[in-house]
Each structure stands twice: as C-alpha cells, then as structure tokens.
Amino acid sequence: MPSDRGAGGLPVNTAEILTEVTGIAAAPGSLAERAKALLAQLQRVVRFDAGWITLLPPGQDLHVPLARSGYDERICGFFDNTSLLAEVELVGLRRSRRPVRLVDVPFPPSELPSWAEYLEPAGFRDAVCAGLFASEGRYLGVLALHTRAADQVSEAARDLLGMLTAPIASAVDPLRSLATITGLVQRATAGIVLAPSGAVLPLPGLPDHRLLAPGSDVLTAATGQLAEGGPHASFLAPLSGTEGTEGTEGTEGTEGTESMQTHARITVLTVPLELRPFAVAVVLVSPAGNLHGLSHRELQVLGLLVTGASNERIARALGITARTVAVHVEHVRAKLASPSRTAAAARALRLGLFVPSPLIIRHQAPTSHAASHGRRLP
C-alpha cells in the first residue's frame, strides 16, 4: 500500500485510484473481466497475496466466483460451499457496508472455520473483506483480500477500500449489466428480471409494471414463450378493461396513456450465458405499436392459431362457434395480407401480433355456454 498520506490519512493517490476503479465499472466487457481488472487495481490499496470477488445469485445459498487468485484447491472448495454464506452472516458482511479487517472481527478469528481450518494453515496472516451492495441496498456478494504478511491492512487501506466498494459493486452487478439490454427494445417503459429461482427482480433504469407482478398471467406467458426456444419473443397483453372488447384497433405511433391503449407489447429477452446464474430473462413492457387493424378478438384467435389449433379447438376455447372463428380467420388473413391461415400465423408470430393462450383462457369472460361449463383448450 502507498506510504504517502494526504488529508484524513488516505493515500495521496486516492483520487487516482477512485478514477481508475470507476472507469473499470463503466468499461465494456464481461463481469469476470471487470472483476479481474478490479483485483489488479486493488493491489494499489493492499499488497495482497490472494483475493477474490464472488456474487450470490438471488434466492440461492452458493456464491458464484467472478475472479480469484492465490488460493489452493482446499480454500476454493470452502469458498464454493454453502458454509461461506454462514460466515458472511456471522461476520456481518450482509448488514454493513464497512469493510472488516481481521483485527476488526468482534470475536477470535479462530472461531471462523475459514480462517482456522483453511487460510491460516495455508500461511495467510491478515485479511480484509467487504460486502458488495447495489445502490438500492441489494446484497450482491463479497470482496476479500488476504496477505501472508501480518498487520498488512492498515486503517487507511480499510477506509479507502470502503470508498471503493460502491463503484466495485456497480462494476460487477449482473442486473446493471442487464439494463443495457433494454436499449434493444424501442420505447420500453417498464421491465423486470426473471431469476433462476423464479423471483421477480427490479431492472435498473426502468420501473416495474402491474402486468409483470409476481405470479401474473403475463409472466406465465413469458415463461412459456421462453420454453419455445430462441433468444427473444414478443406478444401482446390486454390492458385493464379491454378483455372481450371487439373492434378496437391499434395504430402505429399511438402512445398516450394506458387508458387510451388496448394492449401493451411484452418483449422477452434471454440473457447472455455468463449471466445465467443470476437471471433467466429480461421482460419489458412497451407500447403495442401497429396492430394492423386487428381487433382484440382477432388477436386472441391468432394467439391460438400460432399454436396450430383447429377452428373447432379455438371455438371451444373462446366460447364461440366454429363458423364465427372461420370469419375471424378470414379477417385476420386479409389484414395481414396472408394467403393462408398458416402464413398468417407465421407472420403474427414473427411480429408478435397475438395474445398468448395463458392470457386468453384467464381473461375470457365467462358469458358463453362453453365458458360457463369450464371448458378449456385441450
């Protein structure tokens, strides 16, 4: 660690180190690449012999290492065990943003299995650890530095590390990385992240939306679209008060308020492979855009048509006659300028011009004979 001190006992190059770390947070690259660059920069704060940055995926109990060096296989095995989370809780790293040196631990280090059974026998004599938190307080993971020299981590080094934890956390926050995906969808107004555990997480930079509430039909439909494969999917969700509405049309460029719209566009984007431990997909809400004059009922028909359903099956699902379905299919073909029902379904699927079946069945008004008898699409 630099020996020269400025005001407050911090190294005189504190501003330079902060600038470098903040630059890493803003730089392109994978989480692992940024984590490795951050560890290299932290050598200017503490002359450590081993260090690691690890993250805890939401709803899980195993941390995922982003970057680490200097540890043997036994120590790495402990870090990759659920016992690490218990120690993080014991030391208080999930409750406090203040880094903790070995001498700051409020009980003998020998009571920590990681230190007594792994780190000290491997020759380490000093350490400093810090919890990493997103700006809104969400726990991300842990940064730890270990030295083979005793009394290597000074108070000044600890305090400087405390100043660096916020930009470090920003650099390795998986959800922050996902926020860049929203730029792929024009006019996105809301969004969430689906975690592997099924949890619904906030998407930095965008508000949430009532359509994307945990357990909603829209998220059920989004999950179903993901199961079909492919990097992305798009469909329409009816807004409040539009269920069962006939003859309502959407037009290109119609934004306005939600009350003026009949549908919202839902876009589902799978996440890059390196982020899969932390998230499954990003789900975004945006204005519906050009609906090509399709009515709400015709969008429902298309939602069943893209599944390959026959007119009879569509009729049973919607509680209408097969003859009425045939009329709707002809209208759909004309509005989409498609020579056949198969071509119309393919175009609707490509443009996201359909209401998926989970939203159709739930929202179908129970006024028809079929609905009153609890009929469902086979």
Would you kindly provide a written description of the structure presented here, covering whatever features stand out?
The protein is of the alpha+beta class. It folds into two domains: 7-176, GAF domain (Beta-Lactamase, 2-Layer Sandwich), CATH 3.30.450.40; 185-372, Winged helix-like DNA-binding domain superfamily/Winged helix DNA-binding domain (Arc Repressor Mutant, subunit A). Helices cover 36% and strands 16% of the residues. It has a five-stranded antiparallel sheet, with helices on one face. A hairpin with a 5-residue loop joins strand 4 (126-133) and strand 5 (139-147). Helix 1 (14-26) runs parallel beside helix 6 and helix 10 (311-318) crosses helix 11 (322-335). The chain is elongated and about 85 Å long. Residues 242-260 and 365-378 have low confidence and may be disordered.
Determine the fraction of residues in helical runs and give it as a percent range. Answer: 25-40%
The CATH class label of the largest domain is Mainly Alpha
Strand order of the largest sheet: 2-1-5-4-3
Classification by helices and strands: alpha+beta
Topology (SSEs and partners):
Elements: H1 14-26, H2 31-42, E1 50-55, E2 64-69, H3 73-79, H4 83-91, E3 100-101, H5 113-119, E4 126-133, E5 139-147, H6 155-172, H7 174-179, E6 190-194, E7 200-202, H8 217-227, E8 232-238, E9 263-270, E10 281-287, H9 296-305, H10 311-318, H11 322-335, H12 341-351, H13 357-363, H14 369-372
Antiparallel strand pairs: 1-2, 1-5, 3-4, 4-5, 6-7, 6-10, 8-9, 9-10
